[in-house]
Amino acid sequence: MIHNMIRYKRILLKLSGESLMGGKQYGIDEKRLAEYAAQIKDIHQLGVQTGIVIGGGNIFRGLSGASKGFDRVKGDQMGMLATVINSLALSSALGAVHVKSRVLTAVRMEPIGEFYSKWKAIESLENNEVVIMSGGTGNPFFTTDTGSSLRGIEIEADVMLKGTRVDGIYTADPEKDKTATKFNEITYDEIYNRGLKVMDLTATTMCKENNLPIVVFDMDTPGNLKKLILGEDIGTRVHN
Questions:
Q1: What's the gap between Cα 46 and its chain centre?
Q2: Closest CA to 161 of 234, 93, 86
């Protein structure tokens, strides 16, 4: 019965590297990782095909590295490797709760992960594996937001779920501006016109042009992911 209530059959879940830090200043908080794995297990048991892209900001950010004198291309490559570390950590946490997962990398690095292809990703999803797609797009100058837009479009996901620390998109940064109000839904064009920082412009444009809706929601509250899948109006929905 519950399967009839599922709003999305195949998703691209975008997780930020920063949120993996939990209460720490740096690196990976094992408690947060276990919470994420438990939430992913919940929707996996409902039969939702789940592709995941994780950022690397808890380990290294190419852009801030460039401002400190790193070569931008090398900095971005370090950022890509950071996403691989996070992806392996999540894969390990999923294994601990008996969920099969597969790590694909945008840059060849067998035996750490298999080289990404759309077909391999979809085949794994259809075989009931959670697919973690790491290494961004494999190219410098692209963020993991763009990487997740690209992967979401490639795997023909119904939606991109962008898990963050905040519970949606606001008129301004709610952590800085107490008068900020939340949108329940918003169009891509409104995001441009208001200059809202939801994702970088490349990522937003790709979703707009390929008609991939985004839901921005608070992933750090356990249970939210399952509620979203079952049709509760959590977070902010972005659409054309």
A1: 19
A2: 234
CATH of residue 229: 3.40.1160.10
- Residue 233's CB is within 10 A of a number of other CB atoms, namely 11
At residue 90, the 3 state secondary structure works out as helix
Q: Positive or negative, the Cα torsion across 211, 216, 219, 221?
A: negative
Instruction: Return the structure tokens found at 163.
Output: 């898990």
C-alpha span between 122 and 102 (Å, rounded) = 11
**What ranges in 182-223 are assigned the alpha helix state H?**
188-194, 201-209
Count: domains in the chain? 1
Question: CA torsion 135→152→104→71, rounded to 10°?
Answer: -10
- And the tokens for 190? 């409104």
The secondary element (H helix, E strand) that includes residue 34 is helix 30-44
pLDDT mean over 43-66:
90
Give the per-residue pLDDT at 123: 98
- Expressed as residue numbers, the domain containing 154 is 2-239
Q: Is 82 left (phi over 0), alpha (psi -120 to 50) or beta?
A: alpha
d(CA 13, CA 49): 10
Q: What is the pLDDT of residues 71-106, one digit of tens each?
A: 889 999 999 999 999 999 999 999 999 999 999 999
| Alpha helix ranges (H) inside 68-117 | 72-96
